[in-house]
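User: Please predict the structure of the protein below. I'd like the answer in structure-token form so I can feed it into my own downstream comparison script.

Assistant: Understood. Taking the following sequence of 467 residues as input:
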Amino acid sequence: MLSQKIDAMKDELIAALQESVRIPSVGGDPEEGAPFGAGPRKSLDWTLVFAEKMGFRTKNVENVAGWAEMGEGDEMVAVLGHLDVVPEGKGWTVDPWGGELKDGMIYGRGVLDNKGPVMVGLFAAKAIFDSGIALKRRIRVIFGTNEERGSKCMKRYVEVGEELPAAGFTPDAEYPIIYAEKGILTYTLSLPFAASGEMKLLSLEGGVAANVVMAEVKAEITDPRPECRQRIMDAAAAWKGPEGSSLSAAEDAAQHIVTLEMKGHPAHGSTPEKGINALACLADFMNGLRLKGEQGDFFARFSKLIGFETNGASLAVAMNDDVSGALTACVGVVKIANGRATFTLNIRYPVTKKEKEITGPLLETFAQNGITVESATSANPLYMPPESRLIKALQKAYTEVTGEEAELLAIGGGTYAKTMPNVVAFGPVFPGQTYKIHEEDECWSVEDIMKNAHIMAKVLVELAERK
């Protein structure tokens, strides 16, 4: 009965998703009544009205989030998604806001990340209640509007005292089940960098984000002595770094400047071992030039404490566990300004460890080496025991629909699940699929949409429990 109800809703679900995608909901500057911009607010309003027409009870939570709910009971179970999207970017072969259905695929920004899964959650819940299934708990679909820019929506949802789920999942990652997510610490650090001697660094800048291995870094060195500039050029030509790295040098004799461009290889901050850090490479080269004073000290200390390591060993924080593996450390951005060199350090630590087990020795290492902490942010680990009722329910539903074993995944990244207690990431992308998310021509197949609907409905019945 439930399966047939879901299949019967197919055309309505696809049409609703197309309509949702046609609302550009890229986050923007705050406006009156729209804390995260006009687009996300418009999408929130539309979704609430649509859910009401479906028969849900709804609520707008301070214009930052909303929910739609059905059923009765003292507790509720939840599907957690978001309506905001990343900018459309360039290179599309279809209208990014058109919701075009072509060859069994729906195209549009947000169709997969994450408007599609939100709509699937609504229709799965609707199908359950239309089937007459009596449940012990309410079912709520929660949708935020700021996931792509920091998830302040869910932080506010929790702060204002909105009800928290007894259990739930966010279809904003991948299948089968992400049951463990490492803790994250992100530091902005600095060291004094005043110039001394005739060979000086004029500029140093590289990287794009704290959570991406620095792939390129550029430095400008000035020295009035032609023979010393030639020594830099010769050293650059002779430098040999890790396979995949490269160093180029160009001299401007009139300005007494040598420009260095070091290239490494990018990787996500959760897997820095897969990349080559350009700053580590540059530090290795600069140590050979023997810069004087604080500039030389910076590169020497960087190489000593971090260098090419990605496990935090020289920072005195190397550790691992059997659930999520080893701690990782990633340097993402560097820049010099006002006599100081500033760089970011992104650490992902094992789920069974406590934050203080890392911050204690780490801060001591910083202090011993004259490193100043300019800012720090943290996100706690997420770990849902494999024997928990939530994990068992997700495994059962996934296997029943797909016929595949529901493998448990531990990751170094952080998903939307971290914003809400009793929630893990579950779907919507199946193993081996290569859908584009934050790229051009984002799409989702109708077949996978319907498969997700069947999985979600089964999970929600399991979690809410039949009377």
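That's the full token string. The mean pLDDT is 96.
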